[in-house]
Amino acid sequence: MNMMYPSSSFTLTRYHSGSRSYTKMSFPVHCGSYHIIETRSHIFHFNLNHEIIRARSKGSDWGHPHEWLKRTAGNDWVYYSTGGYAGVFEAIGEYYLPNFRYPTNNILGGTPFKLPDVTELVDGWYDMVAALLPASQDDDQHRFIKSVLRNTPSLLQAKGEKLHDIIGGVVSVLPPDARHVDYNVIPLTISRGCLYKCRFCKVKNSTPYRELPAAEIDHQLISLKELYGCDLTNYNSLFLGEHDALQADPRLLVQTVERALTGLGLTHSAIDGGNVFLFGSVFSFLGADPGLFHALDRLPGKIFINIGLESADQQTLDRLGKPISAQNVKEAFARMLNINKTYPSIEVTANFIMEDDLPESHYPSVLALIRDSLVRNCPKGTIYFSPLRFAQPSRSRLFEFNRLKVASRLPTYLYTIQRL
Length: 420
Ligand code: SF4
Fold this sequence. Notes:
The protein is built from 12 helices and 17 strands. The protein has 2 domains: about 5-155, no CATH class; about 170-415, tm_1862 like domain (pyruvate-formate lyase- activating enzyme, Alpha-Beta Horseshoe), CATH 3.80.30. By secondary structure, the protein is of the alpha/beta class. Helix content is about 35%, strand content about 20%. The structure holds iron/sulfur cluster (SF4).
């Protein structure tokens, strides 16, 4: 159903059918089913629970008609800019550049949240929509706006907190591969903490690694289903948290993915395909039985496993406080290439650290893997370079990244830390 309601001051389009698949285009492509209110000055998008999910101004002071504000399920506003820089796609693999209100390791981007048009929309969208109520032309418009107004900013904040309560806290970092679905993932925690507690890491917590009992995971699934409600149909992807889901018992891991895909309806969503994103560590990846990859490969959709390798240089690993050896990293990299070649539905990707003042041996050690260990270019096994410093955009680090990207025989992008 796609109906337009003209009125003197706004139009309402209910159940607009957006794209059925995530595609990388140089203009915004919005997926799934959503409602649209358009006024002379703004466009607002609402999900199927009538919660605001996107907005933009149509004014001349707005950065670009392709730029949007997005509200995440964790109730963060993210500003999608075109970047004002032709190389955004080459740098991050997407045509948009996400800008956040919290500190991240972004080396591109500006400060859109300081622009009056942006702050007015983030702080004022509710009043703008409320002001439309008297101009409703019929009962349907009136009912829809009343329903949107029930989802007040404080209720949306409470709902974001409820999500965090269900899964055991804020997702401090999503895997970089989640960019393929615009970070629209349902988070489900299978284990907490991580193995290493690396000194350099800004997203870790102090929780010792522990796997959750199946009953606790099932309880999360029930609560998530209730929380996302009607809008579940707009999700086709799962993030299996927290920092090292691959370390969980293989039977629990496969069973959890199966239960989540069916229980949350991710395989028959309004968006084609299905994806599972998770992190692994060098030890969990090296220790994983081949049977696990066979089982994961047979599941519906694609599986993306992201491993933090950081460096193949011992001096750098020691300086980072990462308690693994350069030899472990080389073995994990070799296994990554092998798994990617063997299993069509699985892509293992890897992260390396990028910083100005690392030991000189760091970049040669990385190039020995991503350039010299491959005889030809390979489309699978994306490499992400993760800047260490937060809140410090830097063109010189971008220059360094471009040098590495040109040399790499694998798809190579920057990793921007994004939370949920
Ligand atoms: S980099 Fe990964 S393993 Fe190391 S502390 Fe951070 S989350 Fe844990």
